[in-house]
Amino acid sequence: MHPDMDTGGSLLATMNHVSQELSERAQHMLKVLIDRYIRDGQPVGSRTLARDANLDLSPATIRNVMADLEELGFVCSPHTSAGRVPTVQGYRFFVDSLVKVRPLREKTVEELRSQLNTDLSDHVLIETASGLLSGVTHLAGIVTIPRREHAAFKHVEFLPLSEKRVLAILVLNDTEVQNRILRVEKDYSAAELQAASNFLNEQFAGRDLSAVRESLVREMRETRADMNRMMMTAIQMADQVLEASVNDEDYVIAGQTNLMQIEEFCNVDRLRQLFDVFNHKREILHLLDQCVHGEGIQIFIGEESGYQTLDECSMVTAPYSVDGKVMGVLGVIGPTRMAYERVIPVVDITARLLGAALNPRD
């Protein structure tokens, strides 16, 4: 088990108690069974288990051990096969007590570090981290956008483009710059756009971004008679810019299509339900929010997520920090039959590297 893995005190105590009751031989056979099932995706029979476990045991002894594991709820027998497959409880014991996580090869770490370099903008770093998680694990990689406790409106500038488009340059918190292209009803001259910028900067500079947005919405709703056309245009353009900033995306996800190659998700209805979860975000965000307050690697296996749509999925996550403060969470989503030994160190080191890359630059 990873030393920083947080599994919850009561659950870990329960697993430790079970571990004391379960013989070393039974634990070894459970690990062999789960390793084999993760690799092949097929129920594991006694004969295969005896060969893989490299133990000189009679068929009767193996059946007895399997019966004990089944009674504990760690394995079960599908209706179509005499072999066994791990249950959620089996995976949980496996992850908490049997997995031996090995550090990534230094070459792999250096490749990840070179991709997550400090020359990239924060958003590009987030997108890169999500893509790396997906690319290395061949599952879906997910990274939440860094949380901002306070975003202050500092300055906005509008520049004319062709075909009724305007480039808006928005400055937040002195250092964050966002560029957005707006579509407007008519072409404006540079002087007109400068006047709109001046009006907004005089009215709102230094105020909280959300408060500015609320004020803009209220102004548009009231449409006061004493407001000239340029003031109204300025407010409408600012609203377009700030709507995108206030309601910015919550997380970046990459590699969802990798899940289409996995046997558990080959059913079209099953895939559609899973992609709906990704698009609607509520369930995923709830799980990720829980991880923000935890320490180290956290894993949700199957039904542990509390969401039926994710019953056949596992999520391996880790928080990433800037200057010792947790800014977000990243992780991998895949089937419960994922290679935890390989995924856990990838998530762990990516979180550390992303945090290091996001640290304030000199």
Explain what the structure shows.
This protein has 362 residues and is of the alpha+beta class. It has 3 domains: 9-98, Orthogonal Bundle (Arc Repressor Mutant, subunit A); 106-145 and 249-358, GAF domain (Beta-Lactamase), CATH 3.30.450; 153-243, Enolase-like, domain 1. 49% of the residues lie in helices and 17% in strands. It is built from 13 helices and 10 strands. The chain has helices spanning 9-21, 24-40, 46-53, 59-71, 88-98, 106-115, 122-137, 190-204, 209-222, 229-246, 268-280, 282-292, 340-358, and strands at residues 75-76, 85-86, 140-144, 153-160, 165-172, 176-183, 251-254, 298-301, 313-322, 325-335. Strands 7-3-10-9-8 form a 5-stranded antiparallel sheet, with helices on both faces. The protein has a 3-stranded antiparallel sheet with strand order 4-5-6. A two-stranded antiparallel sheet has the order 1-2. Strand 4 and strand 5 form a beta hairpin. Helix 2 crosses helix 4, helix 3 (46-53) packs across helix 4 (59-71) and helix 8 (190-204) crosses helix 10 (229-246). The radius of gyration is 26 Å and the shape is elongated.
Total domain modules: 3
Task: Assign the structural class, choosing from mainly alpha, mainly beta, alpha/beta, alpha+beta, or little secondary structure.
Answer: alpha+beta
Helix content: 40-55%
Provide the gyration radius in Å: 26 Å
Biggest sheet overview: 5 strands, antiparallel
CATH homologous superfamily placement of the largest domain: GAF domain
Please give the alpha-carbon distance between the first and last residues. 37 Å
Order of helices and strands: HHHHEEHHHEEEEHHHEHHEEEH
For the secondary structure, the number of strands is: 10
Kindly report the average pLDDT value: 84
CATH T-level topology of the largest domain: Beta-Lactamase
Uncertain runs with pLDDT below 50, 5 residues or more?
8-12
Determine and state the CATH class of the largest domain.
Answer: Alpha Beta
Number of helices: 13
Going across the major beta sheet, what is the strand order?
Answer: 7-3-10-9-8
